[in-house]
Amino acid sequence: MRFALDQGFDVARVTLADFGSVPGEHLDDFLAQYHHGDMDWLEARKAWRRNPTALWPEANSALVLALNYGPDVDPRALSDMPEAGIVSVYARGKDYHELIKKRLKRIARHMVQTFGGDVKVFVDTAPVMEKPLAAAAGVGWQGKHTNLLSRDYGSWLFLGVILSTLEIEPDSPAKGDCGSCTACLDACPTNAFEGPYKLNASKCISYLTIETRSHIPREFRRAMENRIYGCDDCLAACPWNKYAKVSSEMAFTPKETLNAPLLSELVQLQDAEFRLYFSGSPVKRLGRNRFIRNVLIALGNTKDSTHMNKIEALLEDPSEIVRVAAVWALGQMGQKKVFCELEEKHNVGETDIAVQEEWALSMKDLENEPS
Q1: For burial by CB atoms within 10 Å, which of 92, 180, 271, 347 has the most?
Q2: For 11-37, how does the pLDDT look when each residue is reduced to its tens digit (9 = 90+)?
Q3: Where along the chain do the CATH 1.25.10.10 domains lie?
């Protein structure tokens, strides 16, 4: 464990690789209710995800590593600055995937060289449910928002897992609970929680801005406000964060350009500029089109008509995802006469059904607005 902590992790705990049937049953229920939205990779690999031993039958133990990324500011601080986009705190620094994977591999090599056996490393992208393993190992417990909570680090922990064929003495599970508190559930802008410990991910802003490959449903667009990549509201609202510590990991120091980026500048990014702007950030994996979709919705929520020219420029964008969001954003400006003129100019040659429908729905919204 000392070697693992020396590699820069804040917590290192061990549990059995087989965490029983309960997490898998919860996964089945989650999928059966279609709460995963279009994250079809969850369904496709659910048999492996149900239990680490289904993925790797030879595994006996799981070493769970946690790295604190606690922010030095309240992630919700920009909610009263509509002209700035909110990027989830975990994505304001360098991409944690590569950082953690390199450290896991060093630890894994040390384990094999010192103790023998075989190992496999996982960080977020493999069909392993890290949170149940972390809870069983005593890193923390899953709160009512379904995320991991820690007495020492609050809501802010990245997780990595090393499965091993070695039989290692397991640690005890953590003792902690949420009591009668519902702060995280109450904080959700889109009411994505259908009850304590039950998240409908298809309604979650993190899913809507990061995971879905399609258009963001109209019913959630205004609730997104100026969130353009992820959402930390349920995490930030948790009272356990009074024990949280600011991360000392230099790689997670926020880039100045991501602390309060101006929507009016972000919306103009083309693909090459987007890739350069978000180089080294997990935002880059989103791709320019879906990112601009998010920015356009945030711009629409400002209702600031001075942005209309920049939005109009995207009505002819090659991506239909961008064009739908641009039409909606223009409709939010409340300029019915201008909107009609733009519709006559740009919708005449539109061939995508979703974009055509957005023109019609936004026009209807404007007609229904009180004069």
Answers
A1: 92
A2: 999 999 999 999 999 999 999 999 999
A3: 262-371
CB 47 within 8 A of CB 65: no
Residues near 177 by beta carbon (within 8 Å), at least 6 away in sequence: 141
Cβ–Cβ < 8 Å for 168, 14? yes
pLDDT at 131: 96
- The SS3 of residue 326 is helix
Nearest to 64 by CA among 124, 109, 113, 153: 124
Closest C-alpha to 302, from 274, 268, 276, 328: 328
User: Would you say 46 and 39 are in contact if contact means Cβ atoms under 8 Å apart?
Assistant: no
DSSP structure string for 278-312: TTTSGGGGG-HHHHHHHHHHHHHHHT-GGGHHHHH
124 in active site: yes
CB contact at 8 A, 144 and 197: yes
Query: Which parts of the chain have pLDDT scores under 50?
Result: none
Q: What single string gives the DSSP state of each residue in 143-182?
A: -TTSSEEBTTTBT-EEEEEEEESS--PPPPPP----TT--
Domain 262-371 has CATH 3.90.650.10: no
Using DSSP's 3-state secondary structure scheme, residue 221 falls into: helix
Q: Which of 6, 10, 40, 124 is catalytic?
A: 124
What is the spatial distance between Cα 332 and Cα 127, in angstroms, rounded to a whole number? 40
Q: How far is CA 299 from CA 224, 245, 271, 303, 365, in A?
A: 11, 33, 19, 7, 17
Amino acid at 170: P
Residue-level pLDDT at 1: 75
How far is CA 47 from each of CA 79, 119, 161, 275, rounded to the nearest angstrom?
40, 21, 19, 35
Tokens of 200: 């409908």
The pLDDT of residue 52 is 96
pLDDT of residue 2: 86
In degrees, rounded to 5, the angle at the alpha carbon of residue 103 between the alpha carbons of residues 244 and 120 is 110
| pLDDT reported for residue 176 | 82
Q: Residue 99: which of 311, 250, 217 has the closest Cα? A: 250
In degrees and rounded to multiples of 5, residue 262 shows phi and psi of -75, 130
